[in-house]
TrEMBL record:
This enzyme's EC code(s): 2.4.2.8
Family: Belongs to the purine/pyrimidine phosphoribosyltransferase family.
Ranges of residues in domain Phosphoribosyltransferase: 2-124
GO cellular component, one term: cytosol
Cellular location(s): Cytoplasm
Pathway note: Purine metabolism; IMP biosynthesis via salvage pathway; IMP from hypoxanthine: step 1/1
Catalysed transformations (reactions): IMP + diphosphate = hypoxanthine + 5-phospho-alpha-D-ribose 1-diphosphate
UniProt xrefs under Pfam families: Pribosyltran
Obligatory cofactor(s): Mg(2+)
Protein name: Hypoxanthine phosphoribosyltransferase
Record bears the keyword Transferase: yes
Length: 155
């Protein structure tokens, strides 16, 4: 079995998850970014750093921190299927089901969350806050001025 973590946001989750998986496995990492196209194909995700080893004939668990539009997990699953993995399953710590654009349902989900921007436990905002030992919700007015009135200006 190969656990394929999608960097960078997943590094803390994979560290914990890997220690809890009781079957022998290796851990590999991919750096991917989605292009933003609406269709599902291995063509709409850009691989910046590919997996180090072949997945041919192996059971693959793709792990991401968050499933948002679903493009990343859907595209990576298709990519590893095309590489003739024995099986491909997907896992995310957090699932923003309300934001889904492509038809994908991760096989293993830590928690379903509402439409918030979250940081900490590996997840960043502009490269910051990854090291927080908890997951926090960024107040919307910090990235969306229109949210200030609704939310109250309490900093
Ligand atoms: P998708 O391809 O499903 O639209 O995007 C998934 C990726 O978007 C995740 O791997 C993560 O990098 C990023 N992402 C989505 N929502 C959030 C969020 O609330 N906080 C952070 N830090 N990253 C997010
Ligand atoms: Mg990511």
């Amino acid at each position: 079995m190969v656990v394929v973590g999608l960097l960078d946001g997943v590094f803390m989750f994979v560290a914990d998850l890997s220690r809890d998986i009781e079957v022998p496995h290796v851990v590999d990492f991919v750096v991917a970014s989605s292009y933003g196209a609406n269709t599902v194909s291995s063509g709409n995700v850009k691989i910046k750093k590919d997996a180090s080893a072949s997945v041919r004939g192996k059971h693959v668990l793709i792990v991401d921190d968050i499933c948002d539009s679903g493009r990343t997990l859907a595209s990576l699953a298709e990519l590893f299927r095309s590489r003739e993995a024995a099986s491909v399953r997907t896992c995310c710590l957090l699932d923003k089901t309300c934001r889904r654009v492509v038809d994908v349902q991760p096989d293993y989900v830590g928690a379903v969350i509402d439409d918030h921007f979250v940081v900490g436990y590996g997840m960043d905002w502009d490269a910051k806050y990854r090291s927080l030992p908890f997951i926090g919700i960024v107040k919307p007015h910090l990235y969306d001025p229109a949210a200030r009135v609704e939310e109250g200006d309490d900093g």
